[in-house]
Design brief:
CATH class of the largest domain: Alpha Beta
Strand order of the largest sheet: 2-3-6-5-4-7
Structural class: alpha+beta
CATH architecture of the largest domain: 3-Layer(aba) Sandwich
CATH superfamily of the largest domain: Nucleotide-binding domain of ferredoxin-NADP reductase (FNR) module
Strand content: 25-35%
Radius of gyration: 20 Å
Number of domains: 3
Helix content: 10-25%
Length: 327
């Protein structure tokens, strides 16, 4: 694999396209639905303008007059297991359609306590789906996540599905019989599970370097080993793990075909720096850590700039992480 990924909307060819952005000529993909005269899209096998003007398949939910219907919303009960200080494994049941939709790398949902205002929703990546039961991991360090546990609460409102939880998803979807280096720390561990499941199902060999990060524990190592992954647990990615990454990248005999970074942005930039030092250019997938409020590209809270001068609404748009301007 080589080259850079083109910008594309994660919702193209899904029931959520055309979306509300197309209604106001702010589509992230179609040039006509950005208000331009020239048809100049990176063709993805579907014409969004056609879907909007002639098919209009999502007419019922394409409305600013209602806050319902854009995604599925479900009230459900949850079970809680503490993994480490301030970090909890949540399990809850949803509909079969929603469970199927989020059973893939990069999928996430918005959660909030039932009865709380809409602005209390916060995004959480999917760790595992078993039947109609979803597992996620939440770190209660902010008011939104802490609200879920307020007054011994055991009910929540789930909204989804959403899909852009990892940049470079095409690399993950399309690589076969390759060598993968996974770097994961702290709260980057939960999204690593569906990524590894996808990679190992395509006969890829995965090596993982794991660290406890700020949450203080590693909890996916045994599951990764069960999936056939070679796992190395280090006390710190910054002080130990990145040295191992540098060694792998400097040895052309074990050079990976893809590197996956699941963790904070500082970790992603550390991996990029290691590649630059080693003088290699390997495709990279990285978890999306953007601040999100709506998940539909409307509020702009997730917007990031690229080296090419583009503004990317990262809740919707797949991009090459190495092209983002470092914050």
């Amino acid at each position: 694999m080589s080259g850079k990924l083109n910008l594309r909307c994660i919702d193209i060819n899904s029931p959520y396209c055309p979306c509300l952005l197309a209604e106001t000529n702010h589509c992230v993909f179609c040039s006509h639905l950005k208000g331009e005269n020239l048809c100049n899209c990176n063709w993805m096998g579907v014409c969004i303008l056609y879907e909007k003007q002639w098919q209009y398949k999502n007419k019922e939910w394409l409305s600013f007059e209602t806050d319902n219907g854009v995604r599925t919303e479900i009230e459900t009960e949850l079970s809680i297991e503490q993994l480490c200080e301030n970090t909890y494994l949540l399990a809850f049941d949803v509909t079969s359609d929603l469970a199927t939709a989020v059973d893939k790398p990069g999928a996430f949902v918005f959660l909030k306590k039932i009865g709380d205002p809409t602005f209390c929703h916060f995004p959480v990546g999917i760790m595992k789906v078993t039947g109609t039961t979803i597992q996620v991991v939440v770190e209660t360090i902010g008011p939104k996540s802490a609200r879920l546990f307020h007054d011994n609460n055991r009910k929540l409102l789930v909204r989804g599905p959403y899909f852009n939880g990892i940049f470079g998803q095409p690399w993950i979807d399309n690589i076969n019989n390759g060598k993968i280096l996974l770097v994961s720390g702290g709260m980057g561990q939960p999204p690593a599970i569906p990524i590894v499941r996808k990679l190992t199902s395509s006969a890829n060999q995965v090596e993982a370097i794991l660290a406890p990060g700020k949450i203080g524990c590693v909890f996916i190592d045994n599951e990764l080993r069960d999936l056939g992954v070679k796992v190395t647990v280090v006390p710190s990615l910054r002080h130990t793990g990145m040295q191992i990454v540098a060694e792998r990248l400097s040895n052309r005999g074990v050079l990976p075909d893809l590197i996956v970074s699941c963790g904070p942005d500082d970790q992603h930039y550390g991996v990029i720096a290691a590649m630059q030092t080693a003088g290699v250019n390997i495709p990279m997938a990285a978890t999306n850590n953007a601040t999100m409020c709506c998940g539909e590209g409307l509020c702009g809270s997730c917007e990031r700039g690229t080296k090419g001068g583009q503004k990317v609404r990262t809740c919707k748009v797949q991009a090459d992480y190495t092209e983002f301007i470092q914050d």
